[in-house]
Amino acid sequence: MRLEVVDRIKGVIQDLWPSAEVQVFGSFSTGLYLPTSDIDLVVFGKWETLPLWTLEEALRKRNVADENSIKVLDKATVPIIKLTDSFTEVKVDISFNVNGGVKAAQLIKDFKEKYPVLPYLVLVLKQFLLQRDLNEVFTGGIGSYSLFLMAVSFLQLHNRDVSSPNINIGVLLIEFFELYGRNFNYLKTGIRITDGGCYVAKDEVQKNMMDGYRPSMLYIEDPLQPDNDVGRSSYGAMQVKQAFDYAYVVLGHAVSNIAKEYPNNENESILGRIIRVTQEVDEYREWIQKNWDSPSQNDRSLNRNDVKLLDSKQLDQCNNNVPDDEDVLVLPSAPHSKSSSNTSSPLPSLGSSPSSPQSPSSTSSSDA
Asked: What is the pLDDT along the chain (368 residues), one digit of tens a residue?
């Protein structure tokens, strides 16, 4: 489905500029995307001034983008066009002649190959932050690239054999939360992943910075550009730390010996205490499967990030969402009407329900 979105936009670009090259980067390129993640595209070509408005007009005329969704951010540090695909409602960001994202995508792929547990760890952490509105830099949270580098550093400096195929990923998740929620010294320490990874003293980093500049609270050295502090815009890093600490407490309690004595313990998901896959996301997956899944695929339960998808019943069981038969509540659906030559099925509304990092009970409020 996402490849079709890319092809539609590529078609418009290459009709305008036949020699232009379009590349995908970001989470869709690396496979580390959530159902709500956008697609990042970069266009390489030769222009005296970036043709942002020319492409915006062409996308409107071809009805590729929702009329009200397309925006040109020409004053941003990296000028981009933002749009929402009119059929799938997948969000897309288009930039011009920017190499950094493509290089970062390759770096991520290399580390995924080195550490097979990375996709599982990063996807769960991304969903965890998304539900708490801590996943966007412009709201002070941690961006995907920062989170990835934190996860890589954690695995590099971990005292377990993290390359083992039998590694307990649940234990790794709890230890990640323990490190960045409890033990990591944000005031004095920075993160570096080059040359096998190490921690760096912020005092030493500051000596090499220009006068008046100092390392941010969440200092992460960019492996592709060492003078770039990847975490500099994450002004809410301490809120993220608190959320990680909360998750460490909840998961630590869930796997403790005392928790084994709780009634219905066998029927409860440990991960479901901090993560919710909402009904909207589940419906969205079903809509995608119905319209794009082909019987000829070898393994229909795998998506492009190589992580197995569960069917609806399994998903509900894993998220503690299975009601008693006599207490079933049917919710009214409010799908967005879509017209397409491929299908008459409407696209379900896709949203996420944020959960508070303070209260365990709030993680289930969206499913009440």
From this structure: 999 999 999 999 999 999 999 999 999 999 999 988 999 999 999 999 999 999 999 999 999 987 788 999 988 878 999 999 988 989 999 999 998 888 999 999 999 999 999 999 999 999 999 999 999 888 889 999 999 999 999 999 988 888 777 889 999 999 999 999 999 999 999 999 999 999 999 988 888 776 667 888 999 999 999 888 999 889 999 999 999 999 999 999 988 888 777 766 666 788 999 998 888 888 988 998 898 886 555 454 445 555 555 555 554 555 444 444 444 333 333 344 333 434 445 666 555 444 444 433 333 333 33
Count of alpha carbons within 13 angstroms of residue 360, beta-carbon side: 14
| C-alpha to C-alpha distance for 68 and 84, rounded to whole angstroms | 9
**What SS3 state is found at 98?**
coil
C-alpha span between 222 and 232 (Å, rounded): 11
Beta bridge partners of 225: 222
Structure tokens at 84: 């929402």
Report the phi/psi class of residue 133: left, alpha or beta, with left for phi > 0 and alpha for psi in -120 to 50: left
End-to-end CA distance of the chain: 31
CA-to-CA distance for 44 and 23, rounded, in angstroms?
8
DSSP state of 73: E
Question: Which residue in 247, 251, 180, 253 sits closest to 218, CA to CA?
Answer: 180
Token representation of residue 5: 């979105």
Structure tokens at 38: 């956008």
CA 39, chain centre distance (Å): 11
Number of neighbouring beta carbons within 10 Å of residue 18: 8
Burial 294-317 (b: 16+ CB within 10 A, else e): eeeeeeeeebebeeeeeeeeebbe
Longest dimension (CA), the chain: 69
Burial class (CB in 10 A: 0-12, 13-18, 19+), 264: exposed
pTM: 0.78
User: What is the spatial distance between Cα 74 and Cα 96, in angstroms, rounded to a whole number?
Assistant: 11
* Residue 249, phi then psi, degrees to nearest 5: -65, -45
**Rounded distance between C-alpha atoms, residue 269 and residue 99, angstroms:** 42
